[in-house]
Amino acid sequence: MQPLDASFLDRQGGAVVLIVDDVPDNLAVLHDALDESGYTVLVATGGEAALARAAQALPDIVLLDAMMPGMDGFEVARRLKAGAATAHIPIIFMTGLTETEHLVAALEAGGVDYVTKPIKPKEVLARMGVHLGGARRARETAQHAGQARNALDAFGYASITVRVADGRLLWQTPLARELLARYCGPGWHQQVPPDVAEWLRRVHGIAHTLHEPPRFALEQGARRLAFHLHQQTGDGAEGDGEWLVVMREESDVAAIEAMSLSFKLTAREAEVLYWVAKGKINRDIGDILGASPATVKKHLERVYAKLGVETRTAAAGMALGRLRQLQPGFLA
């Protein structure tokens, strides 16, 4: 089946409605009534088909039969509400069950309303009208947010939305998925790695008190994947929030080359200055570069002369300023 283009469906008239029912007669009655009222109508006769159709078309509202063979309507609703792309879609249950516990179960599964069988099309239309205005606004908000986040990819800034309590990935752009797989392995498509989750839990409660919350990086040779908090998107309660986190891949090699050009340094002088900006002492820099501390000191003296400074602190300050221009959010 070819994926449905939700934007194409929207242009065909009124709201897009997905009807899910395993009884053909019920589908026919509702389809005709809704079609005559100007809605674009999609149908599914089972749970799996409903989930696939909802993911493809992103309907404005779902009319969902509670009792179906195989996957019942309650499970379909739970899965729709668990998906980032479909969580905002209102669900109206259609049920012949009138006991309180069944109606409560429908609402707990994610339904916003219910109608009882036998179905009365006028009642269904009235209930739909109550929920569609808010649903359309929620959908547009979700689409705009998705477009904005995906736009970050074009500039090398991948973004994810993470739930603080359990590290669950609620949203990720294509570049984010690629970077997480490269640095963490292919299994991290639903959860962030434990060390990233721990960093997020640690800074979540204090982020609002800090001008620049602590950042985090995953190292991979001369490259690193840097994470920083961008915007809180969920509940602000301790441990229960959601954050939009921006990631960017950074490279020692690229930064060193850029500093060499910026300050007219040799490759080795640029390396020494780079590691000074990272807070390394001469002995550590020597270990990294395979040179003695005395050699590092000589290179550093030439760096001072070219930068027109006299102290390690001044040289590091100039280097940090340039690195933060080259790599916003540079982690010293």
Characterize the structure shown:
It is a single chain. With 332 residues, the protein is α/β, with parallel strands linked by helices. The chain has three domains: 6-148, Rossmann fold; 155-251, 2-Layer Sandwich (Beta-Lactamase); 264-326, Arc Repressor Mutant, subunit A, CATH 1.10.10. Helix content is 49%, strand content 18%. The chain is built from 13 helices and ten strands. The protein has helices at 6-10, 24-36, 47-57, 73-82, 100-108, 121-153, 174-184, 194-204, 252-263, 267-277, 282-289, 293-307, 312-326; strands spanning 16-20, 40-44, 61-65, 91-95, 113-116, 158-163, 169-172, 216-220, 223-232, 242-251. The strands form two sheets. Strands 2-1-3-4-5 form a five-stranded parallel beta sheet, with helices on both faces. Helix 3 (47-57) packs parallel to helix 4, helix 9 crosses helix 10 (267-277) and helix 11 (282-289) crosses helix 12 (293-307). The longest helix is centred in the middle third of the chain and has 33 residues, at 121-153. The radius of gyration is 28 Å and the shape is rod-shaped. One of its GO terms (biological process) is regulation of DNA-templated transcription. Pfam families: GerE, Response_reg. The modification 4-aspartylphosphate is found at residue 65. It comes from Paenacidovorax monticola. This is Response regulator transcription factor.
Detail the poorly predicted runs: 1-12, 235-239
Question: Roughly how many Å is the radius of gyration?
Answer: 28 Å
The fraction of residues assigned to DSSP E strands is 15-25%
Instruction: Spell the H/E element sequence.
Output: HEHEHEHEHEHEEHHEEEHHHHH
Main beta-sheet annotation: 5 strands, parallel
Number of strands: 10
Mean pLDDT: 81
Question: What is the CATH C level class of the largest domain, in words?
Answer: Alpha Beta
